[in-house]
């Protein structure tokens, strides 16, 4: 069975999706995993200016090292997503630290408002 790839990442499961991007697990040859935020350039909602803004933000946050900040590894404006079925799509992507456990937004949406103690824990 063929595998999907973008550059040196084998594409794994979908972690989430939003208005402008889909987040997939990216697996390197050594088995390490990242979160790949993939922007399809042929979609009408693709905004190249947004990618440039992300690049500026990533450049600044790369200099920071804190356990509560997601690490950004790379951003690429022009990549090719080679799908399992063989077709190719032009994409931009951001490779960042893979954080397990899902999105905080989804957790709040499914469980309701947090108590003050839980809020303090997450904001700490």
Strand-helix topology:
Blueprint: E1 5-6, E2 9-17, E3 22-27, E4 33-40, H1 48-61, E5 72-82, E6 88-97, H2 104-111, H3 116-123
Antiparallel strand pairs: 1-2, 1-5, 2-3, 3-4, 4-6, 5-6
Description:
- This protein has helices at about 50-60, 105-110, 115-124, and strands spanning about 5, 10-15, 20-25, 35-40, 70-80, 90-95.
- The chain has a single domain (about 5-124), classed as Phosphorylase Kinase, domain 1 (2-Layer Sandwich).
- The protein has a 6-stranded antiparallel beta barrel with strand order 1-2-3-4-6-5.
- The chain is an alpha+beta fold.
- The protein starts with a strand and ends with a helix.
- It is globular, with a radius of gyration of 16 Å.
Distance, first to last CA: 45 Å
- CATH superfamily placement: Phosphorylase Kinase, domain 1
Taken together, the total number of domains comes to 1
The CATH top-level class label:
Alpha Beta
* CATH structural architecture: 2-Layer Sandwich
Shape: globular
Order of helices and strands: EEEEHEEHH
Largest sheet: 6 strands, antiparallel, barrel
Structural class given helices, strands, pairing?
alpha+beta
Give the structure's gist in a few sentences.
Helix content is 24%, strand content 37%. It has 124 residues and is of the alpha+beta class.
Key traits:
124 residues, alpha+beta, Phosphorylase Kinase, domain 1, 6-stranded antiparallel beta barrel
């Amino acid at each position: 069975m063929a595998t999907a790839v973008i550059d040196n990442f084998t594409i794994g499961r979908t972690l989430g999706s939003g208005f402008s991007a889909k987040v997939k697990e990216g697996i390197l040859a050594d088995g390490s995993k990242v979160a790949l935020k993939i922007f399809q350039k042929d979609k009408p909602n693709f905004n190249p200016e947004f990618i440039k803004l992300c690049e500026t933000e990533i450049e600044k946050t790369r200099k920071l090292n804190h356990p509560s900040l997601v690490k950004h590894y790379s951003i690429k404006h022009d990549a090719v997503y080679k799908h399992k079925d063989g077709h190719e799509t032009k994409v931009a992507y951001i490779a960042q630290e893979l954080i397990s456990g899902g999105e905080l937004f989804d957790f709040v949406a499914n469980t309701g408002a947090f108590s003050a103690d839980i809020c303090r824990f997450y904001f700490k």
